[in-house]
């Protein structure tokens, strides 16, 4: 088969650290264009990897007719650009959160279906070796049923991560719509659904802007989740963990506890009631500060080449997004919110 | 001054491991009676420490006329016995939760005031050296404002702790009223109020019975707390941490993070944005499994001898209880609850 | 069902530390007699656990008619006593090595079959949690095929272990027949057969008396083993590891290495070519100096109660013994020996 | 004295990592030529260090008339080239194994003697600080007599080490003659002879090709060694330690144990029966993957300058080779082989 | 304000590693000249940072008329150059020891005062975070009174540090006047005065040249110090700590001990009588071998910009020098010496 | 030979923890009497070990006529009692300091010589395995010459050690004459003389009473020592190390450093300039708080049985005492003192 002709749209940090290098390393891919309103950014990558540079997305679609696009733009553009790409016959890999409303997410899924293209969402947590290992252990049954859990993701905020620093679109309400919840919280709602092979049934959320200045988006959220299975737990997303950065998950189960991402050397630690302790050193959990190869791009290309459902489908992305949207609704209404 | 004549009411584990030995070690105390409906338990301590044994509380009050009583009975008896004792002119140390409703708590405070006796609540977390140290550090200002927090208390449940094992009153709804929340959650609502020198303003709570059999009381609760200062966080109480027992608190602040009770050797760890790390080894945090001298009894006796307000007053106990009661209300109504 | 009436024959250290206490702890067992030519030893246990004391085995058999016997006597008596017991209708648990020749072992199996009783051999290594875990991991396939291995068992010798110290039967050729090989080597031939689920096909052995004085039995043996699967490795048994005691096994496989019993905390360590490391803390490996509950007795009683083949059958014991006998033959002939 | 004019013959990895840089660092040496059938390799070093490049060994000998040569060619060429060099009046440093038969080794020694030149073999293990330290400790007598030992050398094979990768001469029977035994085993036979100051008297060897594809040379060998002193032990060479690489030696002695190369920080650990433990951090043991300065080249030049017997003489090399050859014979005949 | 025009006089190691880079990093500074009799050294920095190069100090003063000078010349030149600079209207930062006699120190202070310029001494120990932290802890009172102490500074000598190696002026009596005491001892007399906020009252000193060849300056000194407060302790300076380099201070106090610079990770360790242990990781203590930003230059520039007394005044430097001079006097007279 | 008939004089802590149990464990000894003015103490041991109890020393001498006595009385009695015992024909083991003046020490040596009895001094530091090991290493020459050293001994004072607590004779000037110097300092002057095989030539000492109340004896001393070999160092004795107890010695030598008693696991650590590090775990150094078998008693009995000079002779004790006396003289005169 000939190579998949890919365009990366939006040339910020997530493109720089993950999409572009991982496409470049995939031998079934040809990077044919880069799009960014700041044209110099697109040009830099075009120079580096070949392909053209565009400031305008529509122009690119018309001119390049790509096989696939990676949508790495601010949150508010995820849905319109993904739909436009699908309508232009391109497979779509969209960053998380896949959209900023459930209606948008639904429309994206529809557009992909209608045009016979694949739609994948960039929930990279699923591919990290510690999470893969943890899921295997859970499925082995050694721990019994999950009773309660805690999953959290906190770092000092996108000020230090984005190519635009404190001026990043991450802080602009109209482009980002959500803050820490869209950046980090949706990662953990997706992770917990996937790892427990369960769905969230009810959400309560305290969401607020506690410390970042000059922004209306949330910099912190603490949520309660009740799962369909009856398990319950907390999900925390924070942009104000100025020290003690954290991307960890702990599961208390009938037969013991599993700690994921709590120790720098042993990423999965299993402690059973019978005294058994297992420590698994399976590779670091990626954080914004320390990027590991995500596996997302390879999975996306694989789904195109084999014409199979992507590892993280549009439906997956939609369900994980819905949890986050329910948390916002909970904060707004002061009530627990049932997930559909 | 002559010795304070004390009676211990209820001869279960908390009396066995803390009240009785700590009274016995206080040279200003004379243990004059022990009360328990299982009279053999009372008699065992009377034999050991002197004093009389009673099966009936009222009989004891009339006969002994104690200077002070420790109320260590099931939760539902805390208020009536405390009020009766106060009316009999005795100072009262009542175990947590001080009562099972806010009305009861209010009545207890009134009864003490009316009778000119001291009322203290057994919130021992405040006396543990790691918590004392953490509060000092917070007050020093080095961390700046607390932004978010996580406080949790989990163990395998009272099955292994109570003198009656799985048949304990802890599991009988009519005597206990509440489960893990009354046993553990109220410790943490008290701790977070005291440590942050702040009040809880709003609560959301998921409270449920996930795993213990044959009981209607809660074995797990996950709560969101918003403080008057704006800080927010999670409070978790669990009787199903079958491994990974936990009595820890983490505070993420403007200048760094403070971890309390997360490491067996260094009970307070301070990590600042500027790279500074401080590790404080100040003595273990007590758990049900590993009892440390609480300091509660000495503080109670001190308040009697010096006629000063006890270190944990009735008002303190009431405010900490209210947080827990709000969590139950939140679960019942599906709404956030303001702590008036 | 009524209790299994058990007699322990030979009241030395293995009876003292493992057979007697484990029978005593098994609620389906009644200890009905103890046999030892030094009658005081038998009497001590009879006093402790009830039952009668005998100096003579045949007298006991005739008088007691036990349901089952544990044969814990010097090696040379294993076969004759086991056969006599089987002929008397008793199930037999015999210590390792089950016999001192293949003919004896065959006769024991025959006797058990003829009399319809169970014959089990005390190869306790199979029951130790680290070995159980290691076998599970091997069977999971994660390591691929075993290529080479090293298994060894060494301690300072029975001088410090036997109730008779340096005067022990362990050093008397006519009673022990073999030394370190019968004491330790046969444990490892059994372990490697069982763990790899493979049979030894060829053996070379250097066996000698290097350091113990006044004895003709071997105090050291180093062997080469070739397995039916093609894997090959070394098996070492030593009574002269005066420091650096060792009961470890390392398997080098297609995908990495598994180290069993090489680290005091993590008894099974898995290191894969892909960088993954797993550390399993599953309970200590028992040594002569530090006895753990063996599980052997419970398995023996289980086989009687359920009338199923014992976990370590006479055939198992015979095959493991044959490896050791081949090593002696190799030493004697200067040739490699095929394990027919 | 003027500088020693040296030629390096064979420009593969051992020349690249050890011979050439160590000659270049020795101020008494002038590198006057490099020889390799792949002339570009020779030219590269000639350019770097001065001197001429040759594709043909004989031409070089005739033209350059070197003072000394390093023979770093495939095993089968060691003897003929060394003899030719000696006959041309050059001192010879030959890599291990010095030859592929005892006759060759004998002829090399003869040639050197006849021509009055020095012949040294590249057994670098003797120069590594941990081995030097271990020998000192043995000689001090603190351990008493060595009773048993284990020495092994395993790594993932020359596929990853040789300049030609999997196409290396190491895998071609006609050039290499032997595999892991010639590459690694002969290192350990030399080490154990030298460290114990003892000679091997009898050998049993299992030698085979267990896992490497497309080669007839051995990738694994497990041997039993009996020493003249009576000590016995195992020697293992492996090209299939895909993890758990190992170049370690353990000596169990009358007074305790000495572990060499078993711990990354403390390369020599002494544990005595009296409880004393000594840990010696004396510098890493070199492996193929992590090269340390060998000391071999300096010792060779020293022997030339001072006209003294080299630190590893031809006789040493021959005796160490003979052990390996006996292992091959043992495998071929199924018998133990006496080393006389 | 316009930039401070600075000249660095003496272009040896202290200028290279600390003064020049720290001035270059201070945005309020313009480096206008470099002075060194070896003009190439001065020229190198002029090329790198702009400004002129001079071989002669007087010529520079006349020509450049700097705002400030750093005097980094051999000890004997500290006073005359500082005085000349002050008389030329320049602020002065002089390296330690500020002078080689008390009279010189006094004259320097006078010259600065007369000319209205600031005089600062380069006692960088005061700025190191572990020392700052230790002083804070002492001042908090938690340790009570200091009773005894030990402070030492040892390394292998300036042979390895100076740009001139073993030919350094450090070893030439007429330029250095003092050896280890002027290089290291005066650092510790300043540190102990500052940290304890106390003055030395009496000194006994053994000062000698124990190991360095071809020099008359001291390479070792061991001193006893008695403080005005009554505390007493030892001060050691050494150029012959060939291993075990050390810049540590331990204070034994009424309530426990504080160890500063004794552990590589935790630079300040507090151990109290009540069992409390605090470990502070606050940044490494600088040694000659491992330079950290000193803070000295920024403090000097700050004092100029704000016209405030420098953090280490001439009076400070004089008092710290006097302790050292008393030690020399003690050695010379065989008597204890009162520090006036 | 018949048993040595020994009397222990003074039944305080040193007798309780070391002399009496070590005599009792020595099979060549018969304990025939115990002497203490508090007769109950003597009687307690007489009851325990046989022999008679005396309140009066002279009465005992006359009545018992012992072969040997251990003098464990307050310092001021060491000389008169030792001389009396010698005159009565008894061998003498006297605790340190052997006397309180050089004249007394000389007289003791004379008395022993005149009466043909052995005189030994209880300098137990020499027998501790770490010190023995350190001396061996020094003597091996690997470190070269000792240049400087630091030796110190500090604990919280005899308040917690003596049978009489704070009322101990240790604090009474007339009985103790010296404080920390006699208790601890003399141990270290003896150790440094013995370990370096060198004599002290010059002493400066700051001796004072810094913190103990109600006593005139010294609780702290810091000394400078210059050795005949030219080495110099500090010796510190303290009764106010309330934490950070210390009995350590560090030697900085030509080739590296040796640290003795600085690490709880590795009592002797050798770090050489060439990077070599040796850690020796050879058994703990005894402190007042943690008593190890001293070896002193066995050595004393050995000297009697073999009629050889004791391991620590009177001359040794006198020389070690003289160092301490010189420190007192130095403090008194404000001058360095030559050790004649």
TrEMBL record, chains A, B, C, D, E, F:
Domain Gfo/Idh/MocA-like oxidoreductase N-terminal, first and last residues per copy: 4-123
GO molecular function, one term: nucleotide binding
InterPro entries registered for this protein in UniProt: Gfo/Idh/MocA-like_OxRdtase_N, Gfo/Idh/MocA_Oxidoreductase, GFO_IDH_MocA-like_dom, NAD(P)-bd_dom_sf
Every GFO/IDH/MocA-like oxidoreductase domain range: 132-258
Pfam families assigned to the protein according to its UniProt record, in alphabetical order: GFO_IDH_MocA, GFO_IDH_MocA_C3
Protein name as catalogued: Putative dehydrogenase
